[in-house]
Structure formats: structure tokens, C-alpha cells
């Protein structure tokens, strides 16, 4: 296992369509995070999982967004009825909870373009 | 919530010179401060981090300092090389790991 893996790397979709992204974290990492990054900005937190439990969601995560981590391993992020404002890089990160802050490692991201 | 400000937004240095990037944070409960390097089209790569019980940490040409009283922390890169050219992000976090990022610094190292 060489790191966090995200699929697809790029996605172009028409406005109004649904899209789903997948993230495979580093094996044995129990925390998984989703971030969104727009051009020229730092990543913004969307949501995070501790094992299969989704413990926090940002206000950025509208009701069109849903994330799952059904078995505490890989995660999916779905965007329904995409809008042009959803165009961004979607980043996944994982870390191992050792009872305090630990290093979070990011994947290469999925670049979404809504046309 | 936490707010992280990062300066400068762009930094141009001659190869071999040092680069310094500064960040401030607002929430005194933040206790973990990582730095990430991001190259074009790639995800952020963790390069160094510091925790609130430490004032300084060094790893080869990279060092980070933390001033908890003033709520600011800095990244120092010495003997810069062209491969150091990238966007650098600071971040702050509390115990469960959600990262609040700065806006980034575009570093350009010219030969």
C-alpha cells in the first residue's frame, strides 16, 4: 500500500448529473477526511469518519452531498444534481488515531469540472 | 472556529537562499500544526509538523517554529533548490484532526 488512492482522477459532467468519487485510505488508518479545494485556495474541510461513523460535517456540505464509509475502509462521496459551483478538486486524506493528533496523508484528488 | 492566515501569498527566491513563510491562527485550543507542499495537479504532501508542546523542529533543510503566546508559526527552508518550487500550505488542528488551512504560498526558486 503506497498511500491514499482516489478514483477517478478527473471527472467532467454536465450540470444536473450525479457523480460519485471513491477514496481508498492507507490500510489500518481509521480516520478518513474529505476536503474540497478550489483554484488558488487551501483545502476546505467537508466531513470526516472515524471507522464507519461519520462524526462531523461542514456547513459546506449541502444536502446534495453525501458521504459513506460502509465498512470502515474505502469511502465514497456523491454529489447529486451537480452545479457549476461544485467544480473543484476533491481531496481525501486518512490518518491513524493514536489518541491525539496524527499525520494526515492526502490522495492525489479528483478534479471535477461541471459544464 | 479556527482561522489561519498565511503570508506571503507569493515568494520568489534565488537558488541557495532561504525562504520563510509565516502563519497565524486564532483558536488557542489548536495544538497541531502541519505544513504541506503541493505541486501542480497533485495532492498536498506532508513535509513537517509541530505540536504545541514543542517550540521548534528541524528536518534537514526544513524547520518549523511555533510561538503559542503570539499564536504564530513559521516554515523555514534553507539552501533552496529548484525542486522546492511549489505551493506551501500551513494548517492548524485540534485533537481530532480536522485541518484548517491557510490560503497558501507560491514559492518560486530561480536558478
Describe it.
The complex is a heterodimer of chains A (115) and B (111). Chain A has 115 residues and is mainly beta. Chain A has strands at 5-7, 10-13, 19-24, 31-37, 44-50, 53-57, 65-68, 75-79, 88-95, 105-106, 110-114. In chain A, the strands form 2 sheets. In chain A, strands 2, 4, 5, 6, 9, 10 and 11 form a 7-stranded mixed beta sheet that branches. Chain A is globular. The model of chain A has no long low-confidence stretch (mean pLDDT 94). Chain B has strands at residues 4-7, 10-14, 19-25, 32-38, 45-51, 56-59, 62-67, 72-77, 86-93, 99-101, 105-110. Helix content of chain B is 0%, strand content 57%. In chain B, a hairpin with a 5-residue loop joins strand 9 and strand 10. In chain B, the strands form 2 sheets. In chain B, strands 2, 4, 5, 9, 10 and 11 form a 6-stranded mixed beta sheet that branches. Chain B has a 5-stranded antiparallel beta sheet with strand order 1-3-8-7-6, with no helix packed on it. Chain B has 111 residues and is mainly β. Chain B is globular. Classes of the chains: A mainly beta (115), B mainly beta (111). Chain A binds chain B through residues 4, 6, 31, 33, 35, 40-45, 48, 55-56, 91, 95, 97, 100-109, and chain B through 4, 6, 31-32, 34, 36, 41-46, 49, 51, 89, 91, 93-104.
Which regions of chain A are unreliable across 5 or more consecutive residues at pLDDT < 50? none
User: What structural class is derived from the secondary structure elements of chain A?
Assistant: mainly beta
Count of helical stretches of chain A = 0
The average pLDDT of chain A is: 94
Oligomer: heterodimer
Distance between the termini of chain B: 41 Å
- Low-confidence spans of chain B: none
Supply the number of helical segments of chain B.
0
| Amino-to-carboxy terminus distance of chain A | 35 Å
Shape descriptor of chain B reads: globular
The Rg value of chain B, from CA coordinates, equals 13 Å
How helix-rich are the residues of chain A, as a percent range? under 10%
- Shape of chain A, please? globular
Describe the biggest sheet of chain A? Answer: 7 strands, mixed
Amino acid at each position: 500500500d503506497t498511500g491514499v488512492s482516489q478514483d477517478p482522477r478527473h471527472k467532467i459532467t454536465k450540470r444536473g448529473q450525479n457523480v460519485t468519487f471513491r477514496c481508498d485510505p492507507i490500510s489500518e488508518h481509521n480516520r478518513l477526511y474529505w476536503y474540497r479545494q478550489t483554484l488558488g485556495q487551501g483545502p476546505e474541510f467537508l466531513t470526516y469518519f472515524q471507522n464507519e461513523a461519520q462524526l462531523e460535517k461542514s456547513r459546506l456540505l449541502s444536502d446534495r452531498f453525501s458521504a459513506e464509509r460502509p465498512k470502515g475502509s474505502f469511502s465514497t462521496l456523491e454529489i447529486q444534481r451537480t452545479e457549476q459551483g461544485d467544480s473543484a478538486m476533491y481531496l481525501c486524506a486518512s490518518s491513524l488515531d493514536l489518541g491525539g493528533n496524527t499525520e494526515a496523508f492526502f490522495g492525489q484528488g479528483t478534479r471535477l469540472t461541471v459544464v | 472556529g479556527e482561522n489561519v492566515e498565511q503570508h506571503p501569498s507569493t515568494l520568489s527566491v534565488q537558488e541557495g537562499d532561504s525562504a520563510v513563510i509565516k502563519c497565524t491562527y486564532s483558536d488557542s485550543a489548536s495544538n497541531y500544526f502541519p505544513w504541506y507542499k503541493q505541486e501542480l495537479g497533485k495532492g498536498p504532501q506532508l513535509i513537517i509538523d509541530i505540536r504545541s508542546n514543542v517550540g521548534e523542529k528541524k528536518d534537514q533543510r526544513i524547520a518549523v517554529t511555533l510561538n503559542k503566546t503570539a499564536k504564530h508559526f513559521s516554515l523555514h527552508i534553507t539552501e533552496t533548490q529548484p525542486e522546492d518550487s511549489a505551493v506551501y500550505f500551513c494548517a492548524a488542528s485540534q485533537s481530532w484532526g480536522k485541518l484548517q488551512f491557510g490560503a497558501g504560498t507560491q514559492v518560486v526558486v530561480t536558478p
